[in-house]
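Researcher: Following up on the earlier apo prediction. This time include the ligand. It's zinc ion, with the SMILES given after the sequence.
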Amino acid sequence: MKIVLLGTSSAVPTLTRGLSSTALIRNGDVFLFDCGEGTQLQLMRSGVKRSRIHSIFIGHLHGDHLYGIAGLLSTLHLDGRETPMNVFGPEGLRIFLNAAFRTSDLQFTFNLNVREFPRGYRGRVLDEDEFYVDALPLDHSIFCLGWRFQEKDKPGVFNLERAEELEIPRGPLYGKLQHGESITLGDGRTISPDMVLGPPRHGKSVVYCLDTQFSERSIQLADKCTALIHETTFGPDAIDMARERKHSTMEDAARVAKEAGATSLIATHFSSRYDGRQVAQIGEEARDVFENITLGRDLLEIDI
Ligand SMILES: [Zn+2]
Ligand SMILES: [Zn+2]
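Model: Understood. Below is the ligand-bound prediction.
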């Protein structure tokens, strides 16, 4: 999977940072988390194909995470898109979208499936063959959902040599073992899948926590995840402001990553009060709490 940060600024754009949006790309499908103003331009700059967007997840309805969605969906309509589009987000999202599209009398060329969640909702919002997406409420000034994109575990790699040693005839029996079934051979021996399969391959996971103050729920959502994308609006100079506005400092996010046992933390949603050098400094200090921090910048690509 690949993560592409499309916008890393909080509240207002700057000349070097756009508003919140992050693309997760898996097998060519694009999953878009938040869609601040300017997201469609950033998609073009990044080379992430808007035609391949599978679903859009809007965590909360603050403008810096939302106001780009009307423009993006309108462009997809002009593209003549036919594939249905899923949009997930808190209650109120539909009112916003209806207002925009009724005002412009826009009748989409594709099915727009909007799914809203009531305040406090937690649960599985998408469940496909190879992955699922869970939502959990975070702790922000308005209702805000965090998301966990989780690949399902795959069976271990089939050990051909071992299968030959055990004198299992080639053919359909191999397939049965690969699908987790035990088999009985002509000579009466029973072969169980663990005898020929390596250890199960654990699916990777990406957790998205924007916007929120430090919360036990973020830790729960990010439990042992591969990559935690967490807002880091402020540095140690503005702890009071972070608490007051229900945002996180870089150190708060580092604590969440550490306590959740995450493999890596991707820091984003920086206040416009900091330039790149200051963000680097704040990141350096937070590495005392959690070592593996990637400091976000617009159009940064991260393979996971
Ligand atoms: Zn924000
Ligand atoms: Zn917000």
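Model: The pocket of zinc ion (ligand 2) is lined by residues 60, 62, 140, 211 (CB under 6 Å).
Researcher: Noted. I'll compare it with the apo version next.
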